Amino acid sequence: xxxxxxxxxxxxxxxxxxxxxxxxxxxxxxxxxxxxxxxxxxxxxxxxxxxxxxxxxxxxxxxxxxxxxxxxxxxxxxxxxxxxxxxxxxxxxxx
Amino acid sequence: xxxxxxxxxxxxxxxxxxxxxxxxxxxxxxxxxxxxxxxxxxxxxxxxxxxxxxxxxxxxxxxxxxxxxxxxxxxxxxxxxxxxxxxxxxxxxxxxxxxxxxxxxxxxxxxxxxxxxxxxxxxxxxxxxxxxxxxxxxxxxxxxxxxxxxxxxxxxxxxxxxxxxxxxxxxxxxxxxxxxxxxxxxxxxxxxxxxxxxxxxxxxxxxxxxxxxxxxxxxxxxxxxxxxxxxxxxxxxxxxxxxxxxxxxxxxxxxxxxxxxxxxxxxxxxxxxxxxxxxxxxxxxxxxxxxxxxxxxxxxxxxxxxxxxxxxxxxxxxxxxxxxxxxxxxxxxxxxxxxxxxxxxxxxxxxxxxxxxxxxxxx
Lengths: 95, 363
Fold this sequence. Notes:
heterodimer, A: alpha+beta, HU Protein, Chain A, 2 domains, 5 strands, about 40% helix, about 30% strand, B: two-stranded antiparallel sheet, 14 helices, about 50% helix
């Protein structure tokens, strides 16, 4: 599902013009980005948490060349699903 | 860094304020947004939100585990996990505090690699140097393998001659331990420099061992002098730090014998002549009191250069020595001055005759 399909889906649910949905969606995303870049966790009840995690620095070794590289620490966005969502997904047949 | 958590409600409030809409509308919209994503995920679909990122499902396979309380094996069912991969922009924004950091290629002892944030780029160069190193190490190993046999031989020789030199032994041991070290460091192909240091040390110790053998072990020295340095076997005695043998050898020596000692066949008759006359005009070169650790064989070694010539000493001292194998400590042993031909170290015939005499006397 791409962005357009998502917009259509929301518009159908709310019976709203797509243009407006598009605008609201853009605003929502910008709020998300704003908070995440400030390092704030976004807790979405029944869906999951979006949070920023710090990956520590590490030394990686190229297996073929044995070149050792120091990889610096970094901040990544991670999403952890809530148990409610997980349970729902359990009903999904695998493959 | 502000690590606070905000709830969906706060997001809705912020959205209402930002888009200038009622909170009710914002709430509805937000819920529709989340449920749309959820629905798509439940249909095992990928959801891409512009500027935010992608949500998709990842199947976690069932795995075995152990109940820590009961020790029972349990199987954790497989399940779908929602993974979120942020958009490039979001990723960069979030990582802003650490954005200035770059991956650094760590220098090794060789230190010829420049700092590069993309280590994959210089892949072929280390590979090539690695194979070079492998070849070098291979050569080293084969060299090292061929060397120890020499050391063993020398060691055995010293034992046979019963002149075990303590320095010598310890050097050999050191050499062996160094060898072991060289073997170990080969496991780390990158320590090229170190391998060379060990190898040099090993060489130095080996030559040290040979030198010690050379200076303290007479048969070895003789062998090296004659075979390696090509020295006249008679002249080494002059350089010898111990006893100058020539001074104990009779002046009766024919010049031909001393200049061409290796020509055996021609000397045979001369030898027999000298052999038969050996008791004529006998001169005593020295008188030695037999010490506790000495023997007439040792005296023969000291004065004539080889222990096999003890028979000549025995012949002179027969009256004092009832049994050549057992000589009393403190016995005064006369050392006769022998004809050069009779104690020629290069003449097998001289040794042969001495052995014949020995079997005769030992009966």
